[in-house]
Design brief:
3-stranded parallel beta sheet, binds zinc ion, single chain, mainly alpha, 323 residues, 14 helices
Length: 323
């Protein structure tokens, strides 16, 4: 996953807690709660090093003492062969895919492939939860560059899972989300064409570009190089007005430049937003493999978990509201 391993979605599968923000306690439970003397999760790959290595407890040392490989980079992950691994590739969330150094941070697809190789060993089968965590984060920030970066990272991971399932012939793959975010509109101001070609040219998320401007004297060139379409004089003047305001702190300047770059990208590509929060429309569920038929049609989102639970116990999913 691309968020912290102690974030809400993995915790929903592997911890019991009152509040999702109790990250340290969630990480503790991954180690402390055992089933028949075994830790509950064999393979953990993502961010959140700071929730595992703390002043009061260093869970990486504890997992290592119990035989887990501990890895912090893509190369260390590739070198590790133990079936049990804890991979912490960032202090908190991973950088978004477009901002990642691909030789240091694994892609989500690489994490999925690596996890499947480790888990697909016995005749018992396995359960793997994968989260494209930052699609939602980018949408909260109304950042279309980040959204496309993270959806692409997730789509490749989904392909990796499907390729395995096709070969294996006995694996169910389900892809869904618990909600949508941002209310993204393709075509704004009564213009009905969305122009993603502008977005495809951009080399980094707006926030990362804004940070890079603060490390360079030729800051406008930094933006130009990362955007890769010619900035108009109006666009340049807006950026200059922010950059030349000396009363802003570093954070204020980065945040205002980020917003200005996002606005340029939105205007060029005709991308619009209705909210910086979650939205209420139905979301898609995709299922492939044995038992995929149970996931077609319209379901309450909590049914997905109930169906997974029944299938894991080799039972036929039976939903109460279908009587
Ligand atoms: Zn959210």
């Amino acid at each position: 996953m691309t968020a912290e391993i102690s974030h809400a979605t993995p915790a929903g599968f592997a911890a019991h807690i009152q509040n999702r923000t109790e990250y340290a306690e969630i990480a503790n439970q991954y180690f402390d709660d055992t089933i028949n003397g075994q830790h509950k999760i064999d393979v953990m790959l993502g961010g959140g090093r700071n929730h595992f290595i703390r002043d009061d407890r260093n869970l990486t040392k504890e997992f290592q003492a119990h035989g887990y490989d501990i890895v912090h980079t893509k190369q260390e992950l590739l070198n590790s062969t133990h079936p049990h691994v804890l991979g912490l590739f960032s202090e908190f969330g991973l950088p978004m895919a477009v901002d990642r150094w691909s030789n240091v941070t694994p892609s989500l697809a690489e994490m999925v492939g690596n996890a499947i190789d480790r888990l697909n060993t016995g005749d018992q089968g396995f359960f793997l939860m994968v989260e494209g965590s930052q699609i939602d984060w980018a949408a909260h920030h109304q950042d279309i560059v980040g959204i496309i970066s993270e959806i692409d990272d997730y789509a490749k991971a989904f392909e990796t899972a499907i390729e395995f399932a096709k070969k294996d012939g006995n694996t169910l793959v389900i892809s869904t989300s618990d909600h949508a975010t941002g209310g993204m509109t393709m075509g704004v101001n009564n213009i009905d064409s969305w122009l993603p070609a502008y977005i495809r040219k951009i080399q980094s998320t707006p926030e990362h570009i804004a940070q890079l401007t603060q490390e360079s004297n030729d800051w406008i060139q930094v933006i130009q190089d990362n955007i890769q379409f010619e900035l108009s004089s109006t666009e340049q003047n807006k950026l200059r007005a922010i950059h030349n305001t000396y009363v802003y702190t570093y954070e204020e300047k980065v945040s205002r430049l980020t917003d200005a770059i996002k606005e340029i990208v939105d205007r060029r590509s005709n991308t619009g937003w209705t909210t910086g929060n979650h939205t209420g429309e139905d979301v898609n569920v995709y299922a492939y493999g044995p038992a995929a038929q149970y996931f077609s049609g319209w379901h309450e989102n909590s049914d997905t978990g109930k169906m997974l639970k029944a299938l894991a116990a080799n039972q036929t999913p039976h939903l109460e509201d279908e009587n």
